[in-house]
Design brief:
With 439 residues, this protein is α+β, with helices and mostly antiparallel strands. 28% of the residues lie in helices and 18% in strands. It contains 11 helices and 12 strands. Strand 8 and strand 9 form a beta hairpin. The longest helix has 17 residues.
Length: 439
């Protein structure tokens, strides 16, 4: 990066703002601040959907379309809609602190604004942003466009790619490919500009095969470009907005250098962070999530203390003792069809290969991952997960000669299971990758 391009990271302060104003009062501001804190430090995975209710209410009442005092009827409508949403998720949220705080906050706001519990519940129509605040603000500072900040005679930046999909398979920034059994919460990316964390859960109760069920992305506040923003997706919930209901970087001049675009409703979201030259693609395939990113090497390596940095899977890969040799598993797969797995179907190596070849004609690591996932989960949606992971590589990888990868990386940990035991586990349906996820 050129000397004149100084990047000073404003480290992860939450940056609470009392957003309530006018007739809404301090209660709304405190309620929003509490919701935002839960988004940045989310609780463990649960079936409680209170975060969806919070996001919908904030989207309806904040940002450039916030409701003012003279619009109390519309604000009451949004509150009633919010209350109905919390009521629908009450059974699964009995022990959830965020749920009980939301319920009490709604009661306080209804009393403060004399809102009746009876009445319309449709969310008020959002107002369009004012003219002059369109997709790209003309007054956005140059520092908020990564490529434009380079001198015109300087060489273009080098871009890298990382992706995570399936049960789970990881392609690192250095183009190594690994199948891992990292269960629980793990960081994919952790640098001066953003954090990405994933959480994987079993594909059915009691299964050792897992897939990504939750994804959290924190974009840190950066100079005059963007405020801190949090994006969170989980199974059956792929929002097209940040957790505060916004779709850009906030109130700063360069806010539109961070923007969310919904490509396919509920299935495909793209996040452009132009101020750091980064593109992120999040998909829901079946019930589970996939992740892909294109990022400049300079941003990838922007870590204050790299020697003492914790594990960062996209950069360092999975620990050796967490890697799986899926070639050994594949060679031990039963020649005849095993018993169908719960909520899935049985595949032999032959039938899995035929199914994967429908979408992935080249027998590279994406094809092999597809076969592996069908054998370990019996879920045909993992065929599409591998297919879309490769489609994202074609879109995001800067070196078209490196799109396909073949074979296992040399540093992959050898299987510690004997062939008979591998075969037994494969037949019983206990063998599978164990996806990495964050807290």
């Amino acid at each position: 990066m050129q000397p004149h391009r100084e990047r000073i990271v404003l480290r992860g302060a939450a940056g609470w703002m009392v957003m309530g104003r006018g007739a809404r009062g301090d209660a709304l501001g405190l309620l929003r601040a509490f919701f935002l804190s839960l988004c940045i430090f989310p609780p463990g995975m649960s079936p409680c959907k209170i975060m969806k209710c919070n996001s919908e209410f904030l989207a309806a009442t904040s940002g450039p379309h916030h409701l003012a005092a003279e619009e109390t009827p519309e604000f009451c409508t949004a509150l009633r809609t919010y209350a109905h949403c919390t009521h629908r998720t009450a059974r699964t949220c009995r022990g959830d602190l965020a749920y009980h705080s939301a319920v009490h906050g709604i009661d306080d706001l209804m009393a403060q604004h004399n809102c009746s519990k009876e009445g319309p519940t449709a969310l008020p129509r959002l107002r369009p942003p004012p003219r002059g605040d369109s997709q790209e603000r003309s007054d956005s500072p140059e520092i908020c466009h990564y490529e434009k900040s380079f001198h015109k005679h300087a060489p273009p930046p080098n871009y890298t790619h990382c992706g995570l999909f399936g049960d789970p398979h990881l392609r690192t920034f250095s183009d190594t490919f690994q199948t891992c059994k990292v269960q629980g919460a793990w960081p994919l990316i952790d640098n001066n500009y953003l954090n990405v964390q994933v959480t994987n859960t079993p594909v059915w109760p009691g299964s050792t095969a897992t897939a990504t069920s939750q994804l959290t992305i924190i974009f840190k506040s950066f100079q005059e470009c963007v405020d801190q923003k949090v994006y969170q997706a989980e199974m059956d919930e792929l929002p097209a907005a940040f957790t505060d209901g916004s779709q850009n970087g906030g109130e700063k001049n360069g806010a539109n250098s961070l923007k969310i675009t919904e490509k396919v409703s509920g299935q495909h979201v793209e996040i452009q962070a132009k101020y750091i030259g980064t593109t992120i693609v999040v998909r829901q395939v079946g019930r589970y999530l996939t992740f892909a990113v294109r990022m400049p090497e300079e941003v990838v390596n922007a870590v204050e203390d790299r020697d003492n940095q914790g594990l960062y899977l996209c950069l360092r890969g999975c620990p050796l003792n967490e890697q799986i040799d899926f070639e050994a598993v594949r060679s031990a797969a039963p020649a005849t069809e095993s018993q169908p797995r719960q909520k899935g179907q049985a595949f032999t190596h032959e039938t899995a290969t035929a199914k994967c070849r429908e979408k992935l004609p080249v027998e590279d690591v994406y094809f092999k991952s597809c076969v592996f996932d069908l054998l370990t989960t019996g879920d045909v949606n993992f065929t599409l997960a591998a297919y879309y992971a490769f489609e994202d590589v074609k879109m995001l990888h800067s070196n078209k000669e490196k799109l396909h990868l073949y074979g296992q990386p040399r540093n992959a940990a050898p299987s510690r299971l004997t062939a008979p035991l591998v075969l037994l586990l494969a037949v019983l349906g206990y063998l599978g990758p164990f996806s990495a996820i964050f807290l």
